[in-house]
Design a protein that fits this description.
120 residues
Length: 120
């Protein structure tokens, strides 16, 4: 309704407009369940993170590695914080290392299925 107005025809279309989906994700990410009286800081809950702010934070970090840019986008409510980007990146790296240790081989996950055992 925010983007298309109260027209029921435009809301019952085939798919969801990408800008509508992005707006909905940012609204959820930036909304709070309870805000403390007099608080000026915004605390984002990991449980309410939507894909868009995570994607923006990780993509900007991958392309620029600029903390200031990610923090500016975070302050605008468009991205997760730099610290959260680093936590996700570290977690992903740790999971890949754990997989390598379990498999006892270093092989990118996208090359694994049937590549070296002759069944592919």
């Amino acid at each position: 309704m925010i983007l298309d107005g109260p027209n029921i025809k435009s809301q019952s279309g085939d798919g969801v407009n990408p800008s509508t989906l992005s707006t909905a994700q940012l609204l959820q990410y930036n909304s709070s369940i309870r805000r403390r009286v007099g608080s000026t800081t915004v605390r984002h809950n990991k449980d309410r993170e939507t894909p868009l702010p995570i994607y923006v934070g990780l993509t900007v970090h991958a392309r620029t590695r600029k903390r200031d840019l990610i923090e500016m986008l975070f302050d605008l409510g468009l991205s997760i914080s730099y610290d959260r980007v680093m936590a996700i990146s570290t977690s992903m790296g740790n999971r890949v290392c754990e997989q390598y240790h379990r498999d006892e081989v270093v092989c990118p996950p996208n090359l694994r299925e049937g590549l070296f055992n002759g069944s592919g």
